[in-house]
Design brief:
The chain has one domain. About 70% of the residues lie in helices and about 0% in strands. It has three helices and no strands. Helix 1 packs across helix 2 (about 35-60) and helix 1 (about 5-25) packs antiparallel against helix 3. The longest helix has 23 residues, at about 5-25. The mean pLDDT is about 90.
C-alpha cells in the first residue's frame, strides 16, 4: 500500500518538472507585453526562478547557454523521483 504523502510529493514534483519544461519551451518564443505567453511565462517564472537561479549561481559560466533547467530536471527525475520517492 502506497503512502498518500509520497503520492502527493510525487505529483508536486511532476508538476514542477512540467512547469520547468513549459518555461524552457516558452523561452523560444517572443512574449509580447500583456499577451498570454507573457502572462503564462510570468506565472511559471515566479515558481521556477528561485530554484533555477540557485543552481545557476553554483554552475560555471557556459556563455549564452543556460543549463540550469537541465540540471534541475535531471536532479528531480533521477534523485528525487527515482531514488527518494520511488515514483
Amino acid at each position: 500500500m502506497s503512502n498518500p504523502i509520497s503520492g502527493l510529493l510525487c505529483n508536486a514534483v511532476s508538476i514542477f518538472i512540467m512547469m520547468i519544461i513549459v518555461r524552457v519551451v516558452l523561452s523560444w518564443f517572443p512574449a509580447t507585453s500583456g499577451g498570454i505567453v507573457a502572462q503564462v511565462s510570468y506565472f511559471i517564472g515566479r515558481f521556477t526562478e528561485p530554484v533555477l537561479s540557485a543552481v545557476r549561481r553554483r554552475m560555471p559560466r557556459t556563455g549564452a547557454i543556460d543549463f540550469s533547467a537541465l540540471v534541475v530536471l535531471l536532479f528531480l527525475q533521477i534523485v528525487v523521483q527515482g531514488m527518494i520517492l520511488n515514483c
